[in-house]
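User: For my dataset I need records formatted as: sequence, then structure tokens, nothing else. Please produce one.
Assistant:
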Amino acid sequence: MQQDANNKSSRARYPAQFRRAPVKGVFFVLAAAFVLALAAEAGYRGFWRVKCAWTGRQDTSGYFDLYVVGDWTAAGQPYAPGITLSSLVSRMFAGRVQGRPVREFDLTMRDSSVYSQSAALEYALRCRAPGAPGVVLVYPGHADALGECRPGPGAWLRQTLSRRSLVFNDLAYYAGKVFPFHYIKTRRTYEYHVERIVAAGLKKGVLPILSTVVVNVSDMGPGLFLRSAGAGIEAKAIVAKGLSLKSGGRREEEFRYYLSQAKTHPEMRSYLKYRAAKTCQETGRFKEAAGLYSELIETAELDDNYGRPSRWQDDVIRALGVRRSIPVVEAVELFKQNSPHGLVGNNLFTDGIMPNMAGYLLLAGAYARHISTAFNEPVRMLFAGPEDVFESFSYTKRARANALVRSGRWLFNVSARHSLPGERLAAARRCFKDAISLDPYSFSAWLALGLTEAAMRGSLLSDEAELRWLKQLGATDYHTADYNIQDPQLPEILVKLRSYGVPAPIVEKISMGQAAMAAASGKAGAEKL
């Protein structure tokens, strides 16, 4: 009979000291690892004590420190680095608060979780001299999924270690910069890390100013990522019938049709509610439209590939402001008050999440008013409008064109795999055309326009092979306005664009190539580009 490891006769073959050896070995390895971790922690804390003592002696604390924490909007995209949220706020005080020059610390991290943002602030404040006045503008928002699920043991362990271990906290911070999407993102972790940001600021004598988070509600439809080709065809048929009712002037029937289809097609519910809300908006039923827009954002099955903040998120911000007795910018209400009929859309946004300059003026002005109240400092510069800002910052036509290209590329990217991407692609096309009107020799704007026209005519953003081609081309990177396209790559691109029926004048412009277009720009001496 084959002997089992648990069989008495099997155990008899191995002396007890050998059976206990592996257990002892594991114990000693764990104990050694624990001792090494303690030594590393002690050494690292000692290093920071020495470093902070040195930098503290060097810091005269003669500044008013302005920290900014958040993601895309906090960074000032798409206008950064030429114009940022912090630079706008600083300029409103002419660069001085309480007689001290404003010193800006841009800690924003695009596409990163609020966890990384809280770690970045703690890192930046670690050696800050006590007593010097300052604020931290907090605008977290679009990079957290905010699911309903409870954080698992991993999230609890990470939070515990990051509170107690400086080494772990900094390692996690740097990991977040390299792998921005690897964090657990739930409502509970969001609330925990926003509160951690506030606590870090108050501990170092820096006043946190929170803000609710606002997005383009009325001119940016929800995602629609249907798994089967048949469902995509059905969705197109439903919307086509709705548009037919619209063109026939049967708007009430169109509205009821979208709502009835939303009930029978749960996978399309959010998108069809959006179409119903647009119908209400276009027919003057603004209150009803606002209710539907609000409802679809709170819908559990909302399938967006960029993340819209919910009412719950704003409630967390407001409650934290009350609990900690700190200011809160009511950005959501502020944008509603400055939008036609309270429906926030393209009037204040350049794409789905990034405000245009009119929107940034509202946001920066609100932050500035809270600083003015808290530090008894008058706001010295009130901008008349976006053009006034561009002139004040010497923000050229070329820079403005690049900002539009960045927004357009974001819109182009979030159209990928969308079953009905027409609205998003049309918005991207407007961005690229406006960019070309500002800078007629922008190769990136022309190429982006060509790719958008191709996507509107075929499967460029729905076919997986085509998406891989775009990725290899570098066309899926929306953090920059520039396409890093070399002239040897042009023939393949031109063939692709012609195969999709892109208009010849656009293809002809792109065929000039980046170098030739730059040379043409120099010869033409385009005005203040």
